[in-house]
Amino acid sequence: MRRGVIPPVTPGFTTPEYYHRIGRILERGKFDFVFFADLLAAPIRFGDDITEPLRRGTQATATLDPSIVAASIGAVTQKLGVAITKSATYFHPYELARIFASLDHITRGRVAWNIVTSLTQSEARNFGHDDHLDHEFRYERADEFVRAALELWSSWDPDALVLDKKDGVFADPSRVRAVDHDGRFFKTRGPLNVPRSPQGRPVLIQAGSSNTGKDFAARWAEAIFEIDPTPEGRRAYYDDIKSRASDFGRDPDKVLIFPAFIPFIGETESIARKKAAFHNELADPISGLITLSVHTDHDFSVYDLDAPVEDVRVSGTQGLFDTARRVANRDNLTLRDIGKWYAQGVLLPQFVGTAEQVADQIEESFNAGEADGFMVSAAQTPGTFNDFVDSVVPELQRRGLFRTEYTGDTLREHLGLGDVTFGPAQRLQSAS
Ligand SMILES: Cc1cc2nc3c(=O)[nH]c(=O)nc-3n(C[C@H](O)[C@H](O)[C@H](O)COP(=O)(O)O)c2cc1C
């Protein structure tokens, strides 16, 4: 074995430089924020076995805690927002409220929380449960979780930290309150032991696709992530969420919808198509099915790979699976085909072409009422982000569709969400 000759492998995703580079590229491109998803378990669902995920390095086999990554990126950027997932099922509201208040201080007001209820049995097993909580129950619990966190974030008034050396006053006790939250699922006394942060609280993000999930998103989220490969699906989702938000008495313009896509950009259309084809051909069907098994919380290892996809009821993300099955039925796809498709980018649409053509697709989707903005997902990091920032961003700027400079400092300002107000209405103990 030529041990001395093989260059050492640098596991990029475990180094700070990897994240700093992504942050700097996206900030150069004037992005609103970078997002890090998270699961609290290795992807052990396909065949109830970790062997293949480990060998193949499938999604979420190994990831760093996103709150640590967020703090690290925040230290080398000045404007870029940092959005991370934290589970409302496996944390306590106090712990979570403290993490996000701290992150909001450390990033000077650039943090967002993607609220998830956690999808998988593997996560439950890591936290001492044999099975995970029922879908509807998880959302009921998450609802109270968010209320309790909001109460904790409002326990310090903005001017409570006095730091008056002359009179020896650290904080004004009349401006810091206990919250005494005593609900069905959570009890927390408060106040938070972190002063009011620059944004007041993190920007709230969600990505529900079930009926209950969409209601939750429409009630709480200020930004919503969406995956749908078809323009019709994206339009329907957009209209649905906006009308649900109105039903909850919210301004639908303050509930931003961000569908995701993967760009493949080339100097010519044919180069871009070759890039996309190369990427898609490399996709490994088993890796796709391992990830599909995690997202749906259903073991797809028990089916014939070369048969049509069966009509099964899954306990995880029903929406993505329904989309996969709809397309599979239409195009006569086998489970292997679905696995390959899923590995190409978890059903994300691909925008392929020159910078102008990719900008055309973004503009079209925006004008068709599918989106308020977009999540740019990378086929490779940081290559995809570099290509996009160097070619598509300037094209969008030329068209007046994208900022040329940040005009604010906080993520709320980038997103045009306005200030957080914690009036009595936000006390929420009894609000519906
Ligand atoms: C773009 C996007 C990102 C997501 N990120 C996460 C994540 O990081 N962790 C997680 O457990 N779930 C994540 N989800 C899953 C959602 O929170 C949600 O559970 C899923 O879309 C299914 O919807 P439902 O909960 O309404 O059934 C994500 C979903 C989407 C579309």
TrEMBL record:
The UniProt record lists the keyword Magnesium: no
Domain Luciferase-like: start-end pairs: 15-369
Keywords for the protein's UniProt record, in alphabetical order: Flavoprotein, FMN, Monooxygenase, Oxidoreductase
Keyword hit for Cell wall biogenesis/degradation: no
Highest taxon, organism lineage: Bacteria
InterPro entries xrefs: Diverse_substr_monoxygenases, Luciferase-like_dom, Luciferase-like_sf, NTA_MOA
Family affiliation: Belongs to the NtaA/SnaA/DszA monooxygenase family.
NCBIfam families assigned to the protein according to its UniProt record, in alphabetical order: FMN_nitrolo
Xref: PANTHER family: ALKANESULFONATE MONOOXYGENASE-RELATED (PTHR30011), C2H2 FINGER DOMAIN TRANSCRIPTION FACTOR (EUROFUNG)-RELATED (PTHR30011:SF16)
Protein name according to UniProt: Dibenzothiophene desulfurization enzyme A
Lineage, uppermost ranks: Bacteria, Bacillati, Actinomycetota, Actinomycetes, Mycobacteriales
